[in-house]
């Protein structure tokens, strides 16, 4: 998931470090970066990295392709799949609990 400088177009989302800046990219451009459980888990992991890395001071969330994010993956929801990160206690990504507890 994590890269320094060079783009890694693999995975539902990825983090690139640019000095003290973390760029987290949603990486499902073929479906306008809609959020499914893979995206939730990948963004949560990236946000945990941001929250726990003293060398990272700023996080930028962006999307691959022409669309930032079209919202929830309605096809996944219609099929009965969760869009939450698997096993996360607050029913979403790790981002919410880690970022609110981070002292920046």
What portion of residues belong to β-strands?
A: 15-25%
Q: Helical percent range?
A: 25-40%
Number of helices: 3
Show unreliable segments: 4-8, 97-104
User: Spatial order of the strands in the main sheet?
Assistant: 1-2-3-4
Give the biggest sheet: 4 strands, mixed
Kindly state the number of beta strands.
Answer: 4
Overall mean pLDDT stands at 84
Shape: flat
Please give the alpha-carbon distance between the first and last residues.
Answer: 23 Å
Written as H for each helix and E for each strand, in order along the chain, the element string is EEEHEHH
| Structural class assignment | alpha/beta
Radius of gyration: 13 Å
What does this structure look like?
With 104 residues, the chain is α/β, with parallel strands linked by helices. 27% of the residues lie in helices and 20% in strands. The protein has three helices and four strands, in the order βββαβαα. Strands 1-2-3-4 form a four-stranded mixed β-sheet, covered by helices on one side. It is flat, with a radius of gyration of 13 Å. The two termini are 23 Å apart. The model is unreliable at 4-8 and 97-104 (pLDDT under 50).
């Amino acid at each position: 998931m994590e890269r320094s400088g060079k783009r890694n177009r693999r995975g539902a989302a990825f983090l690139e470090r640019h000095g003290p800046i973390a760029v987290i990219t949603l990486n499902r451009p073929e479906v306008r970066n809609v959020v499914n459980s893979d995206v939730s888990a990948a963004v949560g992991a990236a946000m945990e990295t941001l929250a726990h890395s003293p060398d990272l001071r700023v996080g930028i969330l962006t999307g691959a392709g022409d669309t930032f994010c079209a919202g929830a993956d309605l096809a996944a929801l219609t099929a009965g799949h969760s869009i939450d990160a698997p096993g996360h206690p607050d029913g979403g990504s790790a981002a919410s609990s880690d970022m609110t507890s981070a002292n920046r």
